[in-house]
Amino acid sequence: MFKNRALLGLLATAVFGVSLAACSDDDGPSVRSKTYNLVATNGAKAQVVATANADSSFNLKITLSSSTKDTTYAFNVFKGSIASTTTDTLLKVGNFKSTANGSAISAQISNIKTVVLPGNTTATKFTYDSLVKYPSYAKITFKKGAGTDSVVAKGNLYQAQ
Fold it and tell me: What global pTM score does this model have?
């Protein structure tokens, strides 16, 4: 009789342990993010990673896998698609100077909540969901000689609906 109660107690402890482990609060909310691969030149790779924040803002990180020393690269997001000729700036991510040949370079802006949409003068609420639905493209450029832009990488940042 003692063996049956000991076995029953052991079984109850095992069930309780499994139940407690299944209810662990280590499973935080999943972070929504989207990676867009850009079409790059000269064998380099480029990508944009958009990440949603809990407060409806989002972060944007643009990375170029290989750069040329002392070259200043401009990272920007424009309205439209890479097939269009529009250059209405949606987000200026920034300019960054490479410090070594072949080194990776990246730019990031965080907690984006609003943008001034082309044709408007006031900021509009702009969320992660807005970014993945709004027709836009990213472009990485640098200035050549007489001030003309040379495109290093570009790619669309939206999902056609």
Answer: 0.75
